[in-house]
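Entry for NAP complex. Fields follow.
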Amino acid sequence: MAKDLMHAVQYSKYGGGAAALKHVEVPIPTPKKDEVLLKLEAASINPIDWKIQNGMLRPFLPSKFPFIPGGDVAGEVVKVGPGVTNYKAGDKVVAVLASGGGLAEFVVAKESLTVARPPEVSAAEGASLPVAGLAAHQALTQCAGVKLDGSGQQVNILITAASGGVGQYAVQLAKLGNTHITATCGARNMDLVKSLGADEVLDYWTPDGVALKSPSGRKYDVVIHCTTGIPWSTFDSNLSANGKVVDTTPGLGSLMSVALKKLTFSKKQLVPLFMIPKKENLEYLVKLVKEGKLKPIIDSKHPLSKAEDAWAKSIDGHATGKIVVEP
Ligand SMILES: NC(=O)c1ccc[n+]([C@@H]2O[C@H](COP(=O)([O-])OP(=O)(O)OC[C@H]3O[C@@H](n4cnc5c(N)ncnc54)[C@H](OP(=O)(O)O)[C@@H]3O)[C@@H](O)[C@H]2O)c1
């Protein structure tokens, strides 16, 4: 490969799934004033990546075609823009990319969304953190008001799809707070989810799992809802009087429920989550991994040359933890 070219994965139009991903050689990007150039060590896939391919964020993302997807990366800094003060070549980092570019041998990231990766945190673990970890963190702390230092009154939490990318972090982070955790997942992942910190686990294919009934008869103060297809009525009957559902995948139905709750003055709430990445929160997650208090669960690792397999696996919707791509 020519010296200033790199291997990247891109798509050129909306739709088409994994089959539409093409392997190309493109110029290595140049970091702008406030950016760092990274040699990729690992990236992870999130459902938002293929939802963007399906046009969910049209017309904002992709900003243009062809588009290199991928927002979660870990890598080594090889060059910095003239305004960058906190990083130098050779530094190991984790970054979240606002407008893709992650599925490539080299990646540019904003300094403001890049954090140091200590040696105790592997590249795959680091790349598994940004979107899913930050979503779980924001849902618990900002939306639900759970204090992760263990202070505050005990909160009964339900976490749906606790075996997924977001759910696994939601369980582990919630456990740091003063919480009782009920979690849902498939039968094959019940032991794993318990080991992450859930106090009780429901198989989502059983009648009690469908009904979201707490085995110990608890009502939920907070639900961190990490999947789709559960009607408000099912939550309603399981919520405490001031219970709150934080919906990670707000659709038209949940936004209408929000409006209806306001009209009926119900104290139960449905809060849509729109994750806004913050550097200090990513630093906090990396620190927890370093200290052994948070363990990213990795479903599978795929070479960049087979990124389409990782993409298809995410679309399939049955990953246990995060799907990682490595150069
Ligand atoms: N709002 C935001 O800012 C934001 C940020 C990040 C993510 N999200 C969204 O959050 C959702 C979850 O993301 P993710 O990365 O966690 O997805 P994911 O990793 O693909 O989730 C897959 C997991 O969900 C489980 N699952 C599927 N349906 C379930 C159900 N009805 N009950 C219990 N478990 C179920 C699957 O278990 P089985 O294999 O056993 O079926 C699998 O382990 C996605 O829609 C994503 O787009 C939103």
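NOTE: The pocket of NAP is lined by residues 46-48, 131-132, 135, 160-161, 163-167, 184-186, 189, 204, 226-227, 248-249, 273-275, 314, 317-320 (CB under 6 Å).
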